[in-house]
Amino acid sequence: MDRTELSVDGERFKAPRARVCVIIPARYHSTRLPGKPLLEIADRPMVVHVATRAAQARNVGRVIVATDDARVCDAVRAAGFEAVMTRTDHRSGSDRIAEVAAELDDVDLIVNVQGDEPLISPRVIERTIETLCEDEAASVATCCEKITTVTDLFSPHVVKVVVDGRGRALYFSRAPVPLPRDSVQQHGSLMAAVEAEPQLLTAFRKHVGLYVYRREFLLEFAHERPSPLELLESLEQLRALEMGAKIAVVEVESSAIGVDTLEDLARVRALAGGDESRSSVERCHPDGATV
Q1: How confident is the model at residue 17 (pLDDT cuts 50, 70, 90)?
Q2: Residue 215 — pLDDT band, cuts 50, 70, 90?
């Protein structure tokens, strides 16, 4: 991928020449938080915060919100951003963005930014795009972060990722992987092993749900049937691995805060009342070292 050097606010910045579009899937109906995209944070709908931060990524050329509800579409357009209506029967956000991507013949890379992460860092978006541009063999790029608590390690809601020495995903799981066999045998269980050897936590990584796709692969991915491992773990990224795709992984220091509960919403509202930039990732590196 050809690259050009830019200067933004005095900072030298290597930007890929790829044509990049962020698509933000924003489904109105949510089991726990109905109307989630339109929940107000600092006097603006949550999805508008996401679009604003995505537009601040310096290697993004276009931002589109893909929604199934006219109220979301109207709110996004009123804020000056592009929005399109999609079908209501999509199984996942990836399917929703693929519907939009199919019409974007002039785009090389599609970035899937979750619509419920209003404090996502533009820098993380930039670096994930850069990583896919740098790894020509990869079809997808995504993010991970260190696991620092036992609660996250054992939670099935926190997806774990195992990464190889080249920074590519080997596997994603809701279970704690990889298993430190010798320590588990010595202490009798993984819980006991981690309590006795807290440093074991450094072996685990939490997956962060930001994806950058090569457009052609996204369209192929969306047409594939759910794979056996995907159905077993309920993780659609396993479909990509079972298709033989290579997924590049960027390790970041701390992820944006996803809003899934009223408690999450209260936390984000409190952060947005101060300096939002301090609440999200600003430094990341593709091979596991933070910078």
Answers
A1: low
A2: very high
Q: What string of DSSP letters covers the chain?
A: --EEEEEETTEEEEEE-S-EEEEEEE-S--SSSTTGGG-EETTEEHHHHHHHHHHTSTT--EEEEEES-HHHHHHHHHTT-EEEE--S--SSHHHHHHHHHTT-TT-SEEEE--TT-TT--HHHHHHHHHHHHH-TT-SEEEEEEE---HHHHH-TTS-EEEE-TTSBEEEEESS--S--HHHHHHHSSHHHHHHH-GGGGGG-EEEEEEEEEEHHHHHHHHHSPPPHHHHHHT-THHHHHHTT--EEEEEESS------SHHHHHHHHHHHTS-GGGGS---EETTS---
Residue 2 has pLDDT above 70, yes or no: no
What domains sit in the chain, N to C, each tagged with a CATH number? 3-285 (3.90.550.10)
With 60 as the cut, is the pLDDT of residue 289 above it?
no
